[in-house]
Design a protein that fits this description.
The two termini are 19 Å apart. The chain folds into 2 domains: 212 residues; 90 residues, Cation efflux protein, cytoplasmic domain (Alpha-Beta Plaits, 2-Layer Sandwich). It is 66% helix and 9% strand. The chain is elongated and about 85 Å long. The protein is mainly α and 320 residues long.
Length: 320
């Protein structure tokens, strides 16, 4: 998000380009999801079904990001003063918990199936595992190339690239299982691949859930340091001290800040406004905090009012 008009127009083309890139990545992974899940169910391959669920996480994450981006563009109203941007967090939580439960089910189901006689030939299942292992790796490589060329949020781009990079491990497991199925029992090879994919899903979703919980608890984003932010604010000319400093996330890409800044006692309200602008520009450029509410003070706000001089009372102002 960009807070000034001069930079808003500049990023318009890149956002359109990013929309096309994310749309293409979503489409090819959605097609692969349908193909893998269908073949997995027909062939009774737990590994392919598990990879299908992992693809569902990928497609769901991309769609959630797209929907959240669209909804976040809507103007806030009296009921939702921040708009509907946290829908992304709620949807991501539901998706992640569902995938964790599905992963446990798949592993248990694969363990049961490993002791049963397969109705499919080992050659048939091996062929499916090998084929989709190769296709999955190729699709992941294309997805990474497309995402790497995006011009949008660097953190979001890097997170998506790392996610598709980890997906390659799951597809590699399917490929290896397909090869091993020619030499060992196909159900054992399928079970091994299923467990690997389930572990990858669990690791990915736990990381997402941890971030979601941090957002819902209004924790300081892991990429930010409260002490570092405080130190930078204190470097601003005529700032004496900072207190009541709070930093939290509204969503995975939107950080918020509020705080009280004490300035020299002779600072006028007009000068205070200029200091606030300087602080906000610094917060956005150095910490990517694009929504800050700063309350200017000429003394510590917890000091009893009768201890404050009449001059300080005269110059005191609150600026948001």
């Amino acid at each position: 998000m960009v807070s000034n008009a001069s930079t808003h127009g500049h990023g318009h083309k890149s956002r359109v380009s990013d929309k096309s890139r994310y749309g293409l990545v979503t489409s090819i992974n959605a097609v692969l999801f349908v193909a893998v899940t269908t073949v997995g169910l027909i062939s009774s391959s737990k590994a392919l079904v598990a990879n299908g669920l992992h693809l569902l996480l990928d497609v769901g994450s991309l769609l959630i990001s797209a929907v959240a981006t669209t909804l976040s563009g809507r103007a806030p109203n009296e009921k939702n003063s921040f708009g509907l941007i946290r829908l992304e967090v709620v949807a991501a939580l539901i998706t992640s918990v569902s995938l964790l439960l599905a992963s446990v089910y798949l592993v248990v189901d694969a363990l049961v199936a490993s002791g049963a006689t397969s109705t499919r030939s080992s050659g048939e299942m091996a062929a499916y595992l090998t084929l989709f292992g190769v296709v999955g790796i190729v699709v992941n490589f294309i997805s990474i190339l497309l995402l790497a060329g995006a011009k949008g949020d660097a953190l979001l781009r890097r997170a998506n690239i790392l996610h598709f990079g980890s997906d390659s491990i799951a597809w590699l497991a399917a490929l290896i299982a397909g090869i091993l199925a020619h030499y060992i029992a196909v159900t054992i090879a399928d079970l091994g691949a299923t467990i690997v994919v389930a572990v990858v899903i669990v690791i990915s979703t736990i990381s997402v859930i941890r971030e979601i919980v941090a957002i819902l608890l209004d924790s300081v984003p892991s990429r930010l340091s409260l002490s570092a932010i405080e130190a930078e604010i204190k470097k601003v000319d005529r700032v004496v001290d900072v207190h009541h400093l709070h930093v939290w996330s509204l969503s995975s890409s939107e950080s918020m800040l509020s705080g009280h800044v004490i300035c020299d006692s002779d600072v006028t309200i007009h000068e205070g406004q200029s200091i606030v602008t300087t602080i906000k520009q610094m917060l956005e450029s150095k910490f990517s905090i694009n929504h800050a509410t700063i309350e200017m003070e000429c003394h510590v706000c917890d000091v009893p009012i009768h201890e404050v001089s009449s001059l300080q009372l005269h110059d005191h102002g609150h600026i948001h």
